[in-house]
Design brief:
Elements lengths: L1 H33 L7 H8 L3 H7 L3 H15 L5 H5 L4 H29 L4 H22 L15 H15 L2 H7 L3 H9 L4 E4 L2 E4 H5 L3
Antiparallel strand pairs: 1-2
Helix pairs in contact: 1-2, 1-4, 4-7, 6-7, 6-8, 6-9, 6-10, 7-8
Length: 219
C-alpha cells in the first residue's frame, strides 16, 4: 500500500511546488508593476506570496533568477505586436497605421510596468539586461516601419538618414509619452501617425527650423 501511494505523493508534492513557484512569480510581477523592480525586495515578494524567505530562495536563488521568471511570465501575458505581420503590409502608410493601432493597445495595457522598467533600468542590472531586448525590438520596429519610405530632404545636417528621422518619435511612443495622455487626447492612431511619427528630429516649417517635440506638441 505504501509503495502504491508513493507516486501519488510525489506527484502531489511536485504540483504544490509548481503552484508555490507560480505564486511567487505572480507576486513579483504584481510588485514590479506597482512599485518597480528596483523598489521590490526579495523579502517583499516572499511576504506578498505568503511564503518564507527560505522557500523563495529555494525556487529563486537570486534576483536575476526571479526577474527572468517574471519576465517570461509577463511577456507571455503581454506579447508585443508582431513585426512580421507589419512587414507583410506593402503600403508604408497602411503599415504605419496598423502598427500604431497595435502599439497604442500594447502601451495602454502595459503602461505602468513599462514606465517602471524604463525608470529602473539605470539602477538595476536585471532590468537593464532584460529591458535591452525591448529596446532591440523598437530598433527592429523602426526599420520595419521605414521600409519603402523615401529619405526626407531639407534636413539641416547631411548626417541624418531615414532611420534617424523616425527614431525619436518611436522612442517617445514607447516610453516617454504616457499612454494616459495618448488616450486623453482622443486622437486616432491614423491621425496621430500622419502628424507625428515620421517628423524628423529637426524639420523646416513656416516658423523656421524646430524640434520634432515642438512640432508634435508633446509634453
Amino acid at each position: 500500500m505504501t509503495d502504491q501511494k508513493r507516486p501519488y505523493r510525489m506527484k502531489r508534492r511536485a504540483e504544490l511546488e509548481q503552484a508555490t513557484r507560480r505564486r511567487i512569480t505572480e507576486s513579483a510581477v504584481e510588485l514590479h508593476g506597482s512599485l518597480g523592480p528596483a523598489r521590490t525586495s526579495m523579502s517583499a515578494v516572499a511576504e506578498h506570496a505568503g511564503v518564507r524567505r527560505s522557500t523563495l530562495y529555494r525556487h529563486f536563488p537570486d534576483e536575476m533568477a526571479l526577474f527572468e521568471a517574471c519576465t517570461s511570465h509577463w511577456r507571455a501575458a503581454n506579447p508585443v505586436p508582431d513585426l512580421a505581420s507589419w512587414a507583410a503590409i506593402e503600403d508604408p502608410d497602411e503599415r504605419l497605421h496598423v502598427a500604431l493601432a497595435e502599439l497604442y493597445a500594447f502601451y495602454r495595457s502595459t503602461q505602468r510596468m513599462l514606465e517602471n522598467l524604463h525608470r529602473d533600468q539605470a539602477v538595476s542590472a536585471p532590468v537593464a539586461h532584460h529591458f535591452g531586448r525591448f529596446h532591440a525590438y523598437l530598433e527592429n520596429a523602426r526599420t520595419a516601419l521605414m521600409e519603402g519610405r523615401p529619405i526626407l530632404v531639407g534636413l539641416p545636417s547631411a548626417g541624418f538618414n531615414r532611420l534617424q528621422c523616425c527614431q525619436a518619435p518611436l522612442s517617445s511612443y514607447s516610453i516617454s509619452i504616457p499612454c494616459r495622455s495618448i488616450a486623453a487626447q482622443g486622437e486616432t492612431p491614423r491621425g496621430r501617425s500622419r502628424r507625428l511619427l515620421f517628423v524628423p528630429r529637426w524639420a523646416k516649417t513656416d516658423r523656421g527650423t524646430v524640434a520634432d517635440s515642438e512640432l508634435a506638441g508633446t509634453h
